[in-house]
Write a structure and sequence with these properties.
Length: 294
């Protein structure tokens, strides 16, 4: 290769090196600052192609999208001094690139660590002014709204980031009190169950007593109605018998005597003591039922 070609290649390499250190691109998803010997000279670089002075200017680029920071679960105390383990996360994005750079030196992990500390401090303050019931369910949404507003003001002022949202992922009791709380809850549920069973037995006894009373009343009414019907039937039968027997009293007396003989002779007794001249044997002595002539 000739010396002229070497010179051309060297010039091309120098031009490429100068251009690569002169031109730079800011993407739509990025935020950046232009530095001159470490001093911020342009705190808000817009997306597009820009140029800089090589070896004099430097460009720091940051992610301009909404990012997440996941805080470690922390122990907080409620208004009644009840301990809770709260796990949370936050959504944020860079709003002031100059302040973000000066506060964190452009290091995103450091920014997340500082923001996580402020999230825990804000949660500690918000939990401390509420009861455990309010933290867990009653005012949970209000707590997250309050901490988001409070943290956004602090983060903009100190870190140059906008806090979009703070969410509480999980709230648990500390392990050292979970078992005792479970035992107390179990005892309360057992007590409630015993009360319900006692009320059920009492209600069942009342229902059985009412049913027994109703059965007794029904049986009494049925027995009364049966006796009335039976009495009416007996009266009708007696009237029919009387009318029939009045037509021939002698025949009626004869049939009654025959029935009496049958009942007496079919009895289990071996001895029957009756006077010989008793009316009981009148039809045995005479077919007409009259006493024999002396």
């Amino acid at each position: 290769m000739s010396g002229r070609n070497m010179t051309v290649l060297l010039l091309v390499a120098v031009v490429v090196l100068i251009l690569s250190n002169t031109l730079y691109v800011i993407k739509q998803t990025e935020r950046g600052v232009l530095l001159r010997f470490g001093e911020v000279v342009d705190p808000d670089l817009q997306p597009g192609l820009h140029w800089k002075i090589p070896f004099v200017n430097n460009v720091r680029k940051f992610d301009g999208r909404i990012l997440s920071v996941d805080s470690q679960p922390e122990r907080f105390f409620t208004q009644e001094q009840k301990a809770l383990i709260v796990d949370s996360y936050a959504k944020f994005r860079i709003s002031d690139t100059e302040k973000f750079y000066t506060a964190t030196n452009g290091e995103m992990p450091r920014a997340m660590g500082l923001l996580s500390q402020r999230i825990n401090n804000g949660l500690r303050n918000q939990v401390a002014i509420r009861t455990i019931q309010e933290v867990v369910s009653g005012e949970r949404d209000q707590l997250m709204n309050d901490i988001t507003k409070e943290l956004d003001v602090v983060a903009r002022k100190e870190l140059g980031v906008e806090v979009v949202d703070v969410r509480v992922k999980q709230i648990d009791l500390p392990p050292d009190v979970s078992e005792s709380v479970y035992q107390r809850m179990n005892a309360e549920r057992e007590k409630e169950a015993r009360e319900h069973r006692s009320q059920g037995r009492e209600l069942a006894e009342g229902i059985r007593a009412a049913a027994d009373r109703e059965v007794t009343v029904l049986q009494a009414n049925a027995y009364r109605d049966a006796e009335l019907i039976r009495g009416e039937g007996d009266a009708v039968a007696t009237a029919v018998y009387a009318e029939a027997f009045n037509q021939d009293p002698e025949f009626y007396a004869f049939t009654r005597s025959l029935r009496a003989y049958q009942d007496s002779f079919n009895g289990g007794g071996d001895v029957l003591l009756i006077e010989p001249d008793s009316q009981f044997f009148r039809y045995l002595k005479s077919p007409q039922g009259r006493p024999a002539a002396p």
